[in-house]
From TrEMBL:
PROSITE patterns: ADH_SHORT (PS00061)
UniProt keyword Transmembrane helix present: no
Organism encoding this protein: Chelatococcus sambhunathii
Record's protein name: 3-hydroxybutyrate dehydrogenase
Family per record: Belongs to the short-chain dehydrogenases/reductases (SDR) family.
């Protein structure tokens, strides 16, 4: 497959949490744009290999998988090194990996707090720290983090997640200012509820627990905060990430871009 006309041809994208869901959609879109990609995340080896091989055959790029546990600093560094060693550069970094846990603060397990902060926030800092020198050396870079509507507003019982996503927004602004003259942009995308297999799998249990129909769970529970009453799709998030890598987005930096069906407009 020819890469002619693909604006990321010859560049390398590292996408964390990309073996499924939002991260996989972003990785596939950047590969479609011509980038070689480093996938990262857990899952069945055969499923990961299917996605990795599919990216290579479908888009005519190279793809490798890093099994890095992003709560371990040395493994984050190894993931970025794998990108540089495999493809010669680290041009795009997408911090997407994340985890959630719901509990009142007074009952919130300390180990869950530590895990969420480590994976949702500290891992992004560590990946930036490792990738930025490569971007500076190349004179170009794009750093994109998947934040959340919860980077701008809060919900009860999600203290660690809300704190981490607010932290991502602040980290994004700080990095953007530090790198403003290096032709490296730093932005975050804040989706509302995104339609993924994980969300879909929650519906039957919620129907049973609350005595609701499937439509009621979707409209009155999952999409209660989104005025459009529509889920964001993973393809929409991928398309926005792709745009942020274009030359047209060269002066978009330090931005927290909402994609939440109007949730944070209220």
């Amino acid at each position: 497959m020819s890469l002619k006309g693909k604006f990321l041809a010859g560049k390398t994208a590292v996408v964390t949490g990309s073996t499924s869901g939002i991260g996989l959609a972003i990785a596939r879109k950047l590969a479609e744009d011509g980038a070689n990609v480093v996938l990262n995340g857990f899952g069945k080896p055969e499923d990961i290999e299917k996605e990795r091989g599919g990216i290579e055959s479908e888009f005519g790029v190279k793809a490798v998988h890093s099994p890095a546990d992003l709560t371990k600093p040395d493994e984050v560094e190894a993931m970025v090194k794998l990108a540089a060693d495999s493809f010669g550069s680290v041009d795009v970094l997408v911090n997407n990996a994340g985890v959630q846990f719901v509990s009142p603060i007074e009952e919130f397990p300390r180990e869950k707090w530590d895990l969420i902060i480590a994976l949702n926030l500290t891992a992004a800092f560590l990946a930036m720290k490792a990738a930025i020198p490569h971007m500076k050396a190349a004179g170009w870079g794009r750093i994109i983090s998947t934040a959340s509507a919860h980077s701008l507003t809060a919900s009860p019982f999600k203290s660690a997640y809300v704190a981490a996503k607010h932290g991502i927004a602040g980290l994004t602004k700080t990095a953007a200012l530090e790198l403003a003259t290096d032709k490296i942009t730093v932005n975050c995308i804040s989706p509302g509820y995104v339609w993924t297999p994980l969300v879909e799998a929650q519906i039957p249990d919620t129907m049973k627990a609350r005595g609701l129909t499937r439509e009621q769970v979707i409209d009155d529970v999952l999409l209660a905060a989104q005025p459009t009453k529509q889920f964001v799709t993973v393809e929409q998030v991928g398309a926005l990430a792709s745009f942020l890598c274009t030359d047209a987005a060269a002066n978009i930096t330090g931005a927290n871009i909402s994609m939440d069906g109007g949730w944070t407009a209220e």
